[in-house]
Amino acid sequence: MEQAKYQEIANEIAHAVVLGEFREGDKIHGRSTLAGRFNVSPETIRRAIAILQNEGVVRVKPGIGIIVNSRIEAEKFLKSFDQKNEVQAFIDELKSLMEQRKEIDGQIDVLLQKVSTYADRYISRWNDVEELKIQPESSAIGCSLRELKVREETGATVVGVVRNGNENFSPEADFLLEEGDILLVVSSENGNKKVRSLLK
């Protein structure tokens, strides 16, 4: 399974922190500079930073920028990434075996289901960043994040809100939502579905 580009970039930035290119307390290049370095759009960089922020590798200070938070958390992040790939490799190998030997009976199906179940539980912490826009008819307009109870109801984390092109990272619980706001949500796909339901 090919990983998303923003996940690759998050991995590279974490490597740079572990190797000392970026030290704790350092300000990382701005989003536009990082976009040029990795030859991707600023939106892709925004998603990569959101993942690292959620894992405690960096923090984003309004008006200051992206700050390296913890080398230890960067190491944990990379270890988790490697373990995720190992589990995915097991699944890919089993799928290949099924394609080559269709005559093998239901034992392969049982084994694949067991490994997939384990992988789903483990990989659930490898979250995706989704951008959810507040539509004109949304009941969330005028509500605060506290009132919506996003984390309590869905398990997801709103790591930022983009309003009129301006990014508000780590919004306060009393942050009021407006039409057109774009929520940066870190969660599993199931969690993202629940958030979408809250925003209807």
From TrEMBL:
Any Pfam family hit: TrkA_C
PROSITE patterns documented for this protein: HTH_GNTR, RCK_C
Gene Ontology MF terms in the entry: DNA binding; DNA-binding transcription factor activity; monoatomic cation transmembrane transporter activity
Any one biological process term the GO annotation gives: potassium ion transport
Presence of keyword Transcription: yes
RCK C-terminal domain: residues covered: 117-200
InterPro entries: Bact_HTH_transcr_reg, RCK_C, RCK_C_sf, Tscrpt_reg_HTH_GntR, WH-like_DNA-bd_sf, WH_DNA-bd_sf
Domain HTH gntR-type as annotated: residue spans: 3-71
Keywords carried by this UniProt record: DNA-binding, Transcription, Transcription regulation
Protein name: GntR family transcriptional regulator
Organism superkingdom: Bacteria
